[in-house]
Each structure stands twice: as C-alpha cells, then as structure tokens.
Amino acid sequence: MNCIPLMINGLPGNVARIMAESACQDERFTLVPFSLTGEEITLGQVSVDQTKITLLKPSERENKIHEILESYPGCICVDYTHPTAVNDNAKFYVTHKIPFVMGTTGGDRQELERTVKNGSMPAVIAPNMAKQIVGLQAMLEYGANAFPGLFKGFTLQVKESHQQGKADTSGTAKALVACFNQLGTDFNLSDIEKIRDPKTQKENLGVPEEYIGGHGWHTYTLKAPDGSALFELTHNINGRQIYVAGTFDAVVFLKNQIDTNAFEQKLFTMIDVLTSGK
Amino acid sequence: MNCIPLMINGLPGNVARIMAESACQDERFTLVPFSLTGEEITLGQVSVDQTKITLLKPSERENKIHEILESYPGCICVDYTHPTAVNDNAKFYVTHKIPFVMGTTGGDRQELERTVKNGSMPAVIAPNMAKQIVGLQAMLEYGANAFPGLFKGFTLQVKESHQQGKADTSGTAKALVACFNQLGTDFNLSDIEKIRDPKTQKENLGVPEEYIGGHGWHTYTLKAPDGSALFELTHNINGRQIYVAGTFDAVVFLKNQIDTNAFEQKLFTMIDVLTSGK
After folding, report:
1. Which structural domains are found in chain A, ordered by start?
2. How many CA atoms lie less than 13 Å away from A124 in the CB half-sphere?
3. Which of B136, B185, B241, B272 should be substituted to probe chain A, the one whose Cβ sees the most A Cβ atoms within 10 Å?
4. Which of A13, A183, B134, B155 is 20 to 30 A from B91 via CA?
5. Is the pLDDT at B277 greater than 70, yes or no?
C-alpha cells in the first residue's frame, strides 16, 4: 500500500499529539506538516518527532488548504479537536472533499451526520475509537434486544476510574448501563461510582503509576440477590494506544472505501470498520 | 395459571432431588409422585418434602405410565437422569406424547433431536439451563460472527473452578473459548486452568464454604501484549438454584407452546425460552 497522507487536526492538544507521534512511526502513513487548531492558540508551530507542524487557525486555513491538498493528494484528516469545533471542521472537510475520521466528541451530532451525507466523500464518525469496546458494546446491545429481562432481579454495581481531569461520568459506562437496564436491572446512572483520586486508583485498584494520568477502567458487577450467581465484566484501558490503533484502522478503512466504493454510503461508524475485517 | 403437573425424572440423583424439592415449593407446579430411575437403583421410594415419590425402573415404567397420565393430565417431564438414559428416555416421552425438558447432558444428541422432530409434542433440549449463561454465550457468538479478529493479538487466560467430583473440563468454558478464538485469540483448550482442590477454592478464589461441593466459577482474561488493555469476564454460579429457575422457565415455556401452538416447531432450546420473554 502507498503511504496515506494523514493530516492530524487538534494540535497542540494531547490526543492529537499522540496520534501525530504514532503516525510518524507508522509506515502506512505520511504525516502532513499542518494541523487545524483553535483561533485562541498562540503557538504557530509544534514539533512532532522532529517534524515541524504548522498550526492553522480557522481564519488562516482557507488560504492554505489548496496548497496542502496539491502537495498531499489523497490526504485524509483525523479530527481530535474540541466539541465546539466539530461541526465547523466537518463542513470544512466536506467543502474541500477531504475524507475524515471524526474522533472528537460533542457538537451537534445530527448536523454532523447531515453534513457528511450531503457531501461527496466518506467519513468515519466515532465517539469511541477503541475497537474492542465498541465491539463489546455491540454484543451487549444485541443481548439487550434479543433477551430483555435476562438479568431481572439482579443488582448492578458499576465502578469507573479515569484520570483526575475527567469531570463527567464515563460515556461508555452510561451506554453499557442502558444495556444492562434493558437486560432487567434497575440501575440509576447517578449510582455509577466515579473514581478520580490518584491515591485510590493506585492503591485500591492497582492502576499502574504511569497511567494514573490517562486511563479508563470500568467494572460492571451483576449479582443475584440470593448469592447464587455473579456476573462481572471489566474493561481496563491504559493510555491512548488502543485509540490510536482504532483511529488508524478507520483511516485505512476510509482509504479502502475511496479506492473501491462508489460512495453510495458516505457515513460510517466504527462498527463498519470492525465488520470490514470479516 | 393452573398448576402444571411435573414429573421429575432422575431421582434419587442430586440434581433431580433439588428440582423436585423446588417444584414442591413452587405454586406453579404439582409434583407427580413418580420418577423414572435407573435399572440398577435398589430404592423403591424416596421422600421429597414430605411427598413419597415412587421410583420407576425402565422395566416397570411401561406398565405405570398410562395410569400416571390419567391421574395427571397435561403432565410435563423434566429429565435429570444419566447420559446413558438420554435417548431411551426421550423415546419413552415421545411414545407417550409427554412434552419434556431434557436437562441431562450426553447421549447421542443428533438422535435425540431426530426423536423429538419425529414425535408430536414439543420439547426443550438444553445442555445448560442457566439462562444468563446461555444468553451470555449467545452474545459472544454474535460478536464472534460479526467481528472476527476483534481481539487479535490479545492473550487469553481461562480459569474454571468446580466441585472436586467434576473430572472433565467445563463445557461452558470450552464453548466460550471457541468464541474467543474466533474473536482472534489463539488459545488451546488444554490450557484452561481447572481448579478442583477445595482448599484452593476456599482460600484463593473465595468460594463460600457451603458451595465448595457445588459451584461453577469461570473467569476469562484477555490482555493486550503491551499492557494497554485488559478485558475480563467472570461468571460464578453457586449451587443449583440458577438451573432450577431456568428449568422451570423452560417448563412454563412448553406449557405456553402446548396451549397456543400448532406444534409446527417441536424442538426448542433455551435460546427459544429466553427470546420468548420479549
């Protein structure tokens, strides 16, 4: 496969930086030395693995994009920017016919989908790039639809631990709780136990020191009230590597779509990326 | 609902006894005071919850069954006998037009299915009556078919603990390992860690004292080799209560089939019982 030119937007943000660093070391990709950023960012350039990346604010990007696309034909964008930028960025990509992977959460998701469907190029939109978690969630959704009430009478307990900076409750935990409730439990989202204290994470849960600042650990416990049965599901993610792998799979999926598809379908999710492996 | 006459076959065996005791206390059922047993059993009667149950050997049952069916019209049989009795018992039920739940494992399963299909009454055949485990297995089978290779590169570790008398490897563990391998792991069934030592069960796993003699605990651990992700699934069953509940659900399902169905389908599994809850 020829190298896919990859423009990673959202630098100097943390996730975009990890994606850019990983892209530099991945022979499937060529990192495009430009990145869309926010109007409020004062930096003009950042270095990623010895490559100088020029940051482009919204007010600057229209003037530059044609030159970029000429230098990097077949360029695919990866978006890890900010919820407030999601919809504008999507319109920018569609206007300039750039296929993209939207890894940023938030914004108006329905408008985002409309933008893609009204455009001419394919995009993968995924609030969670961790393939295995997406697959797990799909399995539980299947079970919840096929066997509603399977765990009727069971109690549910949910614990999730993330880096201290994450204020809101885990979106994955909320999605899975919805499945468990369809399976018969009676669990309130406000009863999800959020663990954000680094000391507790390290000493009680055993989160490795190096991942205290970036992890997503989840455990769901279903118990029969008479003590006759316990079911437990755990998914512990350390660092961002799993999101990098999923994002890059989505990029390769898009490239294959572009190479083979008549673009009847333009809007894709991680489920499409997963099932394409069949 | 009128009481369903329930004939529990396999007394004085342990599982049949638990089923019979539970049936006595369940207002949905009337326990029929007869039970098919093996030719080698020397007891003539057993007591279950103050009810005397007459044991019928294969050589005695043909002479008695008409009288039983006249006294208990609409009787449904539950079979927890012995692998060597599975096929003969099924033929006996079909010959006498008795709907049945086959909870006994082993025997010639293809012949068993043929027997039911060639008969005129419905039957539920289920090697595992624990509804939640059957449902869980269905979810994993769905995932394995939809997302083959999802856990490619992950290592799998499987531990299962059962009462000391269980010599073979857990059938559930083997079935789930097949799913995980389809999901991308490369795991050999012989690497399933079988725990049968009561001391280890109590001290290392924490199996409650009263369930050392009857439990089925399973844990499957998937790890990304770089330590970036861990997925773990546990299902711990204590005692037989979960099998009683599933078996009785299967009986009620059969009763509903008989009351409403034209018997186009005669052979059912626990998946049919589960989805009937929709």
Report:
1. 4-121 (3.40.50.720), 131-238 (3.30.360.10)
2. 31
3. B136
4. B134
5. no
